[in-house]
Design brief:
This protein is mainly α. Helices cover 72% and strands 0% of the residues. The protein is built from 9 helices and no strands. The protein starts with a helix and ends with a helix.
């Protein structure tokens, strides 16, 4: 299931309709497959899965069914959730987990009113990181790790308040870096040089050349 969802994610990123159709089918097959296994075990079947989804949709979005009041899902969920982490998968990637934790906290009002608060928090955390970097590395490794973690968490919060998913933003940055670095490799090969033979200035010049050509 995890493998198939990653393949669907790739299709969505590439905006390839044919691949999306195929990968959605593969994900659906997994849903049906697990439902059949559960049916054979006497636990539930595909109809129960669909029924659970319908019930959940009505509960989460009452304004779409019978004229209920529209309300943020996290706010509604907070009234019945026992703790901040209840129901949150422990295996979520750290970046995604940070955003979900912040979403949940925001559901009870623990949030900034706009992007200015988290933007200032990023600046504050960066200043604390710089303080740690100025200290002997051997004596400050754990403290530096803690401060860098706080900085990453603050950046995720800024992304969230700006209505950007941090994981998506980082994925795009990764793709951009790969594209530009591969462009550097191509240019170097065309000029019969290796990247490792260039000094920092030469590498920067090559990077800026690729960047400027985009």
């Amino acid at each position: 299931m995890i493998e198939e969802t990653h393949e669907l994610d790739d299709a969505l990123r590439s905006n390839d309709a044919d691949a999306m159709r195929e990968e959605l089918g593969d994900v659906l097959l997994q849903v049906l497959f697990h439902s059949v296994l559960a049916e054979e075990a006497g636990d539930f079947d595909a109809h129960d899965v669909a029924g659970c989804l319908i019930e959940k949709m009505k509960r989460r979005h009452p304004h779409l069914y019978g004229g209920g009041t529209k309300e943020r899902w996290e706010t509604m969920k907070a009234r019945t959730r026992g703790s901040l982490t209840e129901g949150l998968p422990s295996g979520l990637p750290a970046l995604h987990r940070a955003q979900r934790l912040q979403d949940r906290a925001a559901g009870v009002g623990f949030d900034w009113p706009d992007v200015e608060g988290p933007a200032h928090k990023v600046e504050e955390e960066l200043a604390e990181v710089r303080e740690q970097l100025a200290r002997p590395r051997e004596d400050a490794r754990e403290a530096l790790e803690a401060e860098l973690g706080d900085l990453l968490f603050a950046v995720v919060n800024l992304c969230r308040r700006a209505n950007v998913h941090a994981a998506v933003a980082l994925d795009r940055a990764n793709e951009k870096f790969v594209r530009r670095f591969e462009g550097m490799e191509r240019l170097a090969a065309e000029r019969h040089v290796t990247l490792s033979s260039l000094d920092a200035a030469g590498l920067d010049a090559l990077w800026n050349e690729v960047k400027g050509a985009e």
